[in-house]
Model the fold of this input.
Amino acid sequence: MEHSIIQDMTSRLLEVYLKNRVYDKLYYPDFFPVKYVNSLKWETLIGSQGNRVAADVVAYDTSAPIKTRAVVRSLSGDIPPIRISRAMRETDLNDYNVAKAIGSPLSQILPLIWNDVDFCVDGVNARLEWLAIRAMAGGTITLSTINNGGGIITEDVIDFGLPTANKEVEATADNYWTTGAYSTNTPITDIQTIVAEAKTIGSSIRYIIMNLSKFIAFQTSTQVQNYCGVGYVAGAIFRPIPTLAQANDMLLSRSLPTIIVVDTSITIENAAHTRTAYDPWLDASSADRYVLFAPELPLGATYVGPIAMETNAPKQATIAKKGHILVSKYSEVNPVCEWTLAETNAFPVWPTIDGCYILDTESHSTFGA
Done:
């Protein structure tokens, strides 16, 4: 490892750039905001947050009745590293040197300096976005050669502990939220059923979270359009397709939770450097299945642990941070190469999952099958 060979690249310059750089808005900080911890282990208590338990009305001069503690489950694990790097090799460095030598405008030179920094920061955020949305979509995460080709592969599913009773399916195939079932599916009934079921365990559902394609299935449903109101054109029934705002107004007017649409696409590059864009809400077989019901937001937190490159930084590395993401710049020789590395140690933790429900809108038998 050698010092950065980009002229004038200092930690201060990198720090100023990252401080002022505005990146695209992400979903994961809304659902799993960053929480810094002092170790690379995480532990969460599931079931520790529940509905209020009422005190008893008692007679004077009597002791207070004793209430039991809720049954609490504990989940724990390691906070894994998330890393991405990019090389500025000889041909790229030659382009940079030539651009400077001939006095090219800054609009041509600056991208050669900062594009790799942006690429790496975006890459770390994309993985955290993927982890959070995969957890929300089905309550589990699996790392495979397809979705994590350059990293570890999990032998077992990472399970966030959604109770079996909270994994919902449809009553019949006619109720699926798919194209062929728009006239027979019953999304409003599904919502009413889950809200009522959640109340029996002391959970008050306030949010329904789904991806854009699932929302399109929702708004195209005949039942939903009927609930939003129908009209008549030339004597024929006209069912307008409600917008998200109109659908939420309808749901609120019936004391039902409102919808949040998660709409994103994340590109995964496998070990062979082939890139494919994915909607992380879809399952491993690219099926669009799940709708999440949640009593509160945020759902949990993204636990962030210490980074060795920061606490024991090599003197040759130029480093700075964008939030919890550490960016390093350094070079190598034989052949000459400038490296940009971004990393964090982070993972989503979901302590409120006991009060959440997930509906598999495409099955009436087995959840997720």
Observations:
- The first strand starts at residue 34 and ends at 36.
- The CA atoms of residues 137 and 229 lie 30 Å apart.
- The two ends are 49 Å apart (CA to CA).
- Confidence is low (pLDDT under 50) at residues 67-72.
